Amino acid sequence: MTTIGQPLDRSAVPSTPPNFRWLRQIGGTLLLLAFLALLWEGAKAFARANNYALEIGGLTISLSNFNNEQLPHLGDIARAFAEPAGRGAPPLYQFLFSQAMFTLWEAVRGFAIGGVFGFALAVLFTYSGLMQRGCLPFVVASQTVPILAIAPMVVIWMSRAGARDWAVPMIAAYLTFFPVVIYTLRGLTSVPPTALELMQTYAANGRAILFKLRLPNALPQIFTALKLSATASVVGAIIGELPSGSQDGLGIAVLDFARYYNQSPPRLWATIATAGLLGIAFFGAVSIAERLIVRWRAEESD
Fold it and tell me: What is the DSSP letter of 155?
């Protein structure tokens, strides 16, 4: 039995049976993938049974997009991974793996740049209301500009600066910093007023308040932003590879296979699937880091 003010003895609390939250999530994901696969193949079978045309009330609707030249079977996409990527080239899975690693390195560098820059802006906005009111609208407006319009300019600027290899990471950083700014700012400014007053009562300076109160309070928000930024950095790296003149990367692979789409559609779909898996893997890595660092949140979720 414990009294008021006495810390709770956790060893005396009966342990709850372990839940199967992760198993449920994996099972739900597999069920969703199975449903999408059935929907994919079912749509193709329906279109083929109706000769790729559907008449409704005298109106003929074309279903030609479901033919094998436009939408290949999932089995054909899976077999494409084992086929050569081109004449005299290695198997497609080996080729896509090397391209994915190149894109991942570009995305990681952009993720780091955008994360550090976004965090610095959030701290600046936290301690300067004038900067927050003056600059935050421009931060928001920056995300309304299409990345395809900015990417060629970034490549030109970085090339003239002698840092062409950093053009793609800078484009990825452009998509990365915005979520970090918004979520980190929300976490840093949403500290409990009583805790802030207590720190000020003990004459804590701004640095102590930042690292001992604001930053621990903001960690869950920061990792939420980082998980969003992880996938955004992959997208930014793929888009940035298109105008960069690079010979490697998933963006170049998408561009090359798109040119020969009518000859071999499964290769392009396999490349798209690889890009999706790369984004999921990066997201999962950040989630694992969150679970290791923000331990109290993991215990609450358990």
Answer: H
Question: How far is residue 105's CA from residue 250's CA, in Å, rounded to a whole number?
Answer: 12
Residues in the chain: 302
For residues 47 and 67, the answer to whether their CB atoms sit within 8 Å is: yes
| Best CA proximity match to 95, nearest among 106, 86, 104 | 86
Taking the C-alpha atoms of residue 181 and residue 66, their distance in angstroms, rounded to an integer, is 42
In sequence order, the 6+-apart residues with CB closer than 8 A to the CB of 238 are 103, 249, 250, 251, 254, 275
Count CA within 13 A, CB hemisphere, residue 293: 16
Residue range 262-290: mean pLDDT, rounded:
93
DSSP tag of 187: H
Strand-pairing partners, residue 55, are: 60
Sign, Cα dihedral of 90, 95, 97, 98: positive
Residue at 2 is within a domain: no
Asked if residue 152 and residue 37 are part of one domain, the reply reads no
**Least confident window among 12-16, 77-81, 105-109, 217-221:** 12-16
Q: Is the pLDDT of residue 182 over 90?
A: yes
Q: Decide: pTM greater than 0.90.
A: no
Task: Please give the tally of structural domains in the chain.
Answer: 2
For residue 145, which phi and psi values (nearest 5 degrees)? -85, 125
Are 201 and 240 part of one and the same domain? yes
